Amino acid sequence: MKKTAVITGITGQDGSYLAELLLEQGYRVVGVTRRTSTQVNERINHLEGRIELVSADLLDQSSLTTVLRDAQPSEVYNLAAQSFVPASWSQPVLTGEFTALGVTRVLEAIRAVDPAIRFYQASSSEMFGKVAEVPQRETTPFYPRSPYGVAKVYGHWITVNYRESFGMFAVSGILFNHESERRGLEFVTRKISDGVARIKLGLAKELRLGNLDAQRDWGFAGDYVRAMWLMLQQAQPQDYVVATGRTHAVRDFVRLAFETVDLPWEPYVAVDPKFVRPAEVDLLIGDPSKARSKLGWQPETSFEQLVERMVRADLERLSRVVSV
Questions:
Q1: Which one, 36, 65, 236, 264, has the greatest CB density within 10 A?
Q2: How many whole angstroms separate alpha carbon 47 and alpha carbon 45?
Q3: DSSP, res 125
Q4: What are 12-55's pLDDT values in tens digits?
Q5: What is the pLDDT of residues 148-180, one digit of tens each?
Q6: Measured between alpha carbons, how far is 271 from 277 in angstroms, rounded to an integer?
Q7: In this structure, are residues 85 and 276 in contact, taking their beta carbons and an 8 Å threshold?
Q8: Going from the N-terminus, what domains does the chain have, and what CATH number goes with each?
Q9: Closest CA relative to residue 22, chosen from 112, 106, 120, 98
Q10: Interatomic CA distance for residues 23 and 29, integer angstroms
C-alpha cells in the first residue's frame, strides 16, 4: 500500500524537491497551497498529474484539519512559512502568524485526526543568530536576530513540546542555508546568480548587494530534502542539524559566480546600505556530524558546484528571453 505524505509549502523551492524525492520513493504526494487570485506553481508544473493539490491555510485551523482527514497521510512535512528574512521586519506579526503559530495549527490538526502521523518541522539556522558557539550543533543555544528567526524558534520548541507532551513523532530539521536555481529572486544567492547572468548577457550593468562579509554555510536544496525524509524514517524522533560544515562569505559566492562567466566581480558590484539588515547574522556554520552518523546523510553537491549550477541555469533562462 502506498504511503501518503502531505507537504505544506509544496510550491516553494524545498517543497518541489521534496515532492520529487517522495514520488521516487513511491509515495502519494498531497501538496497544500493557499488559495490566491494567481497560482504560482512554476516549480511544480513538471509534476502535474503526479501530485494532488489541495487548498488550506496555516492561518486557518479547520482547513488544515480537513486536509489531513481527507488525505489520511502517514507523514506531514511543514515547509510553509513567511521565509524571507528582510520581509519579517516589515511584516513581523504576519511572520509570527505563519511561521510560529502556523506550526501549532498543523500539530493540532495531527492530534485531532491521527496522533500517529509523523511530523517534520522546517527549523532554520537563523534561530542561532548571534551565535553562542562555532560551529552550531543541536545543543547550541538560540539567539535569533530577526522576527523570522524568533518565529522559527517558537515553531521549533512547540514541536519539541508536542513530542514530549503527547508522545508524537514530531521532529525538526535545523537546516542551514540551502539554495538552487529554484530559489526565489529575492534571496541573495539567486539575486547574485541572476544578476551575474544579466550582466554577462548585457541586460544589466551592476549588481547592488548588502553585507559582503556575512558568512553562511551554503548547500544544495536537493541534497537537504533527503535529510528531511530520512528523519521521518527513524525508529525514534530526534532533531538534526543539516549543513555542509563549510562556511563562505557572500563575497566568495559573488567571486565564483562571476568566474563562471569569465568576468572580474569588482567593477560590477556595489554595496548598498538599504540591503543591510537592521541586525546582522555574521557567521553561521553547522556541525552535521549527528545527521552523518545517525541518518547516514551527507551533502553530494559542493559549494562551487552549487554556484556554477545556479549561474548556468539563469544564463540559460535569460538567454531564451533575449532570443525571443
A1: 65
A2: 5
A3: G
A4: 999 999 999 999 999 999 999 987 645 678 999 999 999 999 99
A5: 999 999 999 999 999 999 999 999 999 999 999
A6: 13
A7: no
A8: 4-178+217-242 (3.40.50.720), 185-216+248-283+301-323 (3.90.25.10)
A9: 120
A10: 7
